[in-house]
Write a structure and sequence with these properties.
Distance between the termini: 37 Å
Number of strands: 2
Helix content: 40-55%
Number of helices: 8
Strand content: 5-15%
């Protein structure tokens, strides 16, 4: 079930936040930051399923009015992760349905990419009883049954148990970014789960 819940959460986190509760308002804020871009996607690394959420913004030295764009972009990224658009223990039903439709269309369209489809089927056959054999987006029937409450519960579990890696690219001082994100996570009662995937160095 998590294989389908995670990509739905990924889409919802970059779609809106509590402060900007619809895509139009969020896009307007991104445009005010000189066309910043907030995005998220899923990856699979061995048995581990990775959620990558990022923001791309202009460096401070290029701001016309001397704005601290790095701080503003970091705040928006944190709002996306820690304050998404949800209430009463659920994500909005309309947003969930839109993201569900996009996920199902992606899964249905997999067969049109013959190379990718063949690789997916190979993994599912070779690793039928292993997490690695599960398609990144799960399956259509499971996706149809996931609710906003399921995604909310998954989000809370992820915040408290998922290992976190923060990467900063650019010439601005990264320490304030690390400090802000670390402060947000430290406010949670976290118990990160161990990563069971084993990585072997190249010989």
């Amino acid at each position: 079930k998590g294989a389908s819940t995670a990509p739905l959460l990924s889409r919802l986190l970059s779609r809106s936040t509590k402060q900007y509760p619809n895509p139009v308002l969020l896009q307007r804020e991104l445009l005010s930051l000189y066309g910043a871009r907030l995005s998220s996607h899923m990856m699979k690394l061995g048995d581990a399923q990775l959620l990558n959420i990022s923001i791309t913004a202009l460096e401070n030295k290029y701001a016309l009015q001397g704005e601290n764009l790095t701080a503003a972009a970091t705040e928006l990224l944190c709002n996306s992760i820690f304050s998404p658009n949800c209430e009463n223990g659920s994500f909005p039903a309309e947003d969930v349905e839109i993201c569900r439709r996009l996920l199902i269309e992606s899964l249905e369209g997999l067969i049109n990419d013959k190379r990718k489809y063949a690789i997916s089927k190979m993994y599912s056959e070779m690793c039928a009883n292993e997490p690695f054999g599960i398609e990144l987006g799960g399956d259509i029937e499971t996706a149809k049954g996931i609710t906003g409450e399921d995604i909310f519960s998954y989000w809370q579990t992820m915040l408290k148990t998922a290992p976190v890696t923060v990467t900063v690219i650019g010439s601005d001082d990264p320490q304030p970014i690390f400090d802000e994100i670390s402060k947000r996570f430290c406010e949670l009662n976290r118990t990160p789960s161990p990563v069971n995937t084993r990585f072997f160095p190249k010989k």
